[in-house]
Fold this sequence. Notes:
By secondary structure, the protein is an alpha+beta fold. The chain is built from twelve helices and 15 strands. The protein starts with a strand and ends with a helix. The N terminus is likely disordered.
Amino acid sequence: xxxxxxxxxxxxxxxxxxxxxxxxxxxxxxxCGCVGCGCCDRVSKVCMTMSFAWQALIDRVDETVLEExxxxxxxxxDGVFSEDAIEVYKEEIVAMHEDGHMLPNQVxxxxxxxxxxxxxxxxxxxxIYDKKRREKCPTIAKLFxxxxxxxxxxxxxxxxxxxxxxxxxxLKLQYNDGTGGSVPFHYDNIGKPNKRCxxxxxxxxxxxxxxxxxxxxxxxxxxxxxxxxxxxxRIILFRSDFVLHAVLKSNKPRYCFTVWLDGGETNKDEDVHxxxxxxxxxxxPLIINSPLQRSISRAVxxxxxxxxxxxxxxxxxxxxxxxxxxxxxFVKQLLGNPSLSSFIDxxxxxxxx
Length: 353
């Protein structure tokens, strides 16, 4: 037996002359039924039944995966969604960019003379919190609408906020145009009032090959770096508050979207404030697996931060000069404390990269 359900399906047309059109069908299908596009005779096996859009990921994220995220800080999952689903997600991002809905990726820094806005070349993004943007990418919007189901599944092992309220998560589309754009080292949650707990990143680059670039560079504190190629249908789950990471230069167009889930226990005082009692070798195991590392990582990895800044903004550019100056000023401030400076030297000696 299978249950038949009547519902509306949204598909992105594959007709090259009508690339960005969205065809809506009223169809009757089973739980794995096929639906067709009258414009291009496409038969899609994207499972668009009354089941939740996140079901494929939920089926893969078991206790073992959650334990890996908690213990190692991250987990990589391949082949989660169907190939057709990945293609539709990518087509919607392409259409969003072609229609001008993807904006340059920018970061704002507060300075004594006022805020400074820096632009990452070649990197574009769109936050689909805006309803009008969601209307432009209806299949991805389904993931947005069903976020509460994913939150409920994760909360047993990870303290994410539940309920599906759009103020407790973010879903952002990203397009790298392949001109060498990159993202410097950073944490997705740098401290209060940010509440991000888990980052879920889905790559849509089905034809990626070595040399195309755009890899995710994870840098577990004091450990060896981990390079994750942005293969199509690859998901990376990692802790937003203590996994340092960067994106390497992209030599070919790169597509992905990222979900950030907030946590009710994120950025507690004991996770934010590095105290004198922590400045001893006995505390290093705690700092390695704690958001406390954020307070000092920029000084411990000062050279790696600066290299990634130069790669992103381009040496000699106005934005690069500002970014490097701000980075060096922050490091100088940390090293101005003798006790902290001595502890940072100990941590530098323990770096594996």
